[in-house]
Amino acid sequence: MERRYTLQGDHELLPDNFSLCTTRLALLLKRLSLRTEISKHYSVVIQEQLKQEIIKPVEKGVNSGVGKARYIPHHEVTRVDKETTKLRVVYDASARAGRNSPSFK
Hints:
- With about 100 residues, the chain is of the alpha+beta class.
- The chain has helices spanning about 20-35, 35-50; strands at about 75-80, 85-90.
């Protein structure tokens, strides 16, 4: 099921957050490179979300610019004490492009 959200009322445009998300992604990849099993599981979860169309890839430069495309940074949460879901991908909709910038949330 595809989820679509629309803004209600007057809201300022969200600023471009591409650099924020690429920085967060680089840090995530560095962390995951140190934990190969978690990295493999993370990749499986992301591929499954792509397959189910929960997320979708966006090419750099396509639909970019203020008011066009937004990116949601994500990270892993691991719980080795859990029997079932040991890894979750968490999306940070409250991330801000700048100190006084609005967020999705």
